[in-house]
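Handoff note, outgoing to incoming analyst
You'll be picking up this chain. Sequence as last confirmed:
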Amino acid sequence: MKINGYEIKYTEDELADMMENKSIAINLAGKDLDGYKNLSEGNKKALSHLVSAALMINNVALVQDHPLNLTMKKSLEKKAITDSYARRALELFNSLNGVAGYNGVDENPVEVFEGISLLKGHNFYPQDLQAEEFCRILKTMLKKGKASEVKKILSARTMVRRSGDELQAIDYTEFFAEDFSKIANELEVAAYYSDDEAFKDYLGWQAQALIQNNEDMDMLADKHWAVLQDCPLEFTISRENYDDEITPSVYNDEELSLMLQQLKIEAVSKDMLGARVGILNKEGTDLILRFKKYMPDIAKLMPYCDQYQQSVSEGKEVKQTMIDADIIDLEGDYAQCRGGITTAQNLPNNDKLAVKTGGGRRNVYHRQVRMSVDKQKQQKILERLVAKELHEYFDKEADHLFVIGHENGHSLGPNSEYQNALGKFKHIIEEHKADTVSLNFMSYYADKGVIDEKTLKKIYVSYIVGRLFLSSRPHYMLPHRMGELIQFNYLLEHKAIYFDDENKLRIDFALLGNVLHKLLEETIAVQLSKSPHKAEEFINKYTVWSEIQEKIAAVHKELGIKPYKRIVRNFA
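Most recent structure output, in case you need it:
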């Protein structure tokens, strides 16, 4: 079947198998949730407008991702009304939230249509622009004295298009002016109905940030968002930049990198927008806040902490709010289920002006996402690959505690100046660092009585089995998986984990703590080096795909891999 002249790449039966047998449903919360029933009438009305705004943000993200996304989606939706084949193709499109994307298992991107591929610069840059030409154009523009335009091109918030032999940057607020105006209107209506004053205030600032070409407005919106702790509603416009492969290439060109450094121009990958709507879960939030108390103490224990400034300062209140949220809707970047789906998030990122000017950060945890797991397969993995005495320590709720430590870990360690200097390797190193911070300091939480010793073992076992037992060899566009491969190989090399004669996992708990601390030291040293070369060496050294990993992957494949995620929205 052809859609707009492009053949669907899979048969209807293949699409049915992908969505029915190789996918996991992420069932989001609906109006039957107790938390929704307990909302005031005003906040219920506000929630509906926030969902409307999120759907509009999804259309923006589709345009950012690929120039054909919206056209192909609309045609699929129209055809799917009467055609089952188109409905199946639409299911895959919605899982990827685009015409193509990685699924976390296959090395190459999954493509819905023949002839439509994922673009390295997505739609942030011209489709035919390659990294080499990009760097050459920027150098020429800098030599002509056009540093201010180059700075805009390398901003996280611009779409870039050709202008003769040069490039031109268009701010998001201008490129998406019509969409942003409609989104801002929905936020203003939501603010009118909500009875939470702090939340109303944030929505007002966020609406203004969407219609003004002024980074300071984003900063002010972020700062008002970051202090929200007790308001009943959750709404986030996320701005993260994992997808752009063009911008980081400037750090691989030594001449260009030096020119930018001399001009104090920072190259920041393009922000893909996402939207999250939810309701505060009080019980889950109370648990998370128990970990927050000790962040200033942990900051003082970070390796080389005297060589950089952290978000957490000694003697000051931690500028970080943390909530557990029942998720009503995920759109845009959140809905691009390409190799995984976000279980929690720590924003704003270090490259954002709000953080650079002393603003706080906010962690939001996604209850419905973390509860969507294949429990039968997990039990079979334990039976096949893990020593029996460790089975009692496998607990997915313990993995949630690890995620709390991971998100807190993003607020610890070197800031964006060091992270961005690593170029295309920065996301792998940073996500790996956050993992290692979490694992390294869980013993500290045990010493302070936040968790007990059995829970500590549960965190270690659940993390190693649930995350480090990879189902396929990862690649550079999957930074979380690459980080997990680094950790697996490092723990194996240093004998903190090993496999017995029956190929069953065993853990040397007495050795594990020291090995994790050494790994964290080496990781922070890589960030402090500001060297893409050292980052690449570190990554290459510890991402070798070995025989034992191939055996683990083979067990995953035998038991059935479910690399696709289907977001099921229940709010109507």
